[in-house]
Amino acid sequence: MRGSTIIPVLISVVAIGVVIAVFQQGASPYITLAEARKLSSDHLNLGLNLDKKSISKSIKSGAIEFDGTDKNGERIHVVYNGDPVNNLEQAERVTAVGRLDGDKFVAEQLLTKCPSKYEAEKK
């Protein structure tokens, strides 16, 4: 190869490497509580393991509150004032979208995944 061809090829390889590295860093939409404390955003996605024993619902305000742990085992109290979540008691994990407010997480949206929904039907 000539010198005039090597330089563009090297630049392309470096650019592709940078794009792959950036994509891998941002591939997971979920953050840990430690990462959430470093960010100042109102739209954080926390993937949490749900503590089913801690779920409480306020009849007066309609708020749902529970505790959850992130993938590092760090625990946080979550408060959700949105639309009712019907299958929260069956969920193993929940994605809470919202913001940190001191020692609690105020969720604007809760996304649940029930394991029974994804199990193969028994024949």
Strand content: 35-45%
Major beta sheet, specifics? Answer: 5 strands, mixed, barrel
What is the count of structural domains? Answer: 2
Radius of gyration: 21 Å
Shape: elongated
The first-to-last residue Cα distance is 63 Å
Q: Please identify the top-level CATH class of the largest domain.
A: Mainly Beta
Uncertain stretches: none
What's the β-strand tally?
5
Written as H for each helix and E for each strand, in order along the chain, the element string is HHEEEEEH
The CATH H-level superfamily of the largest domain is: Nucleic acid-binding proteins
Summarize model confidence as the mean pLDDT: 81
The CATH topology of the largest domain corresponds to: OB fold (Dihydrolipoamide Acetyltransferase, E2P)
Structural class call reads alpha+beta
Query: What is the number of helices?
Result: 3
The share of residues in helices is 25-40%
Q: Which strand order do you get reading across the main beta sheet? A: 1-2-3-5-4
Q: Architecture of the largest domain, CATH level 2?
A: Beta Barrel
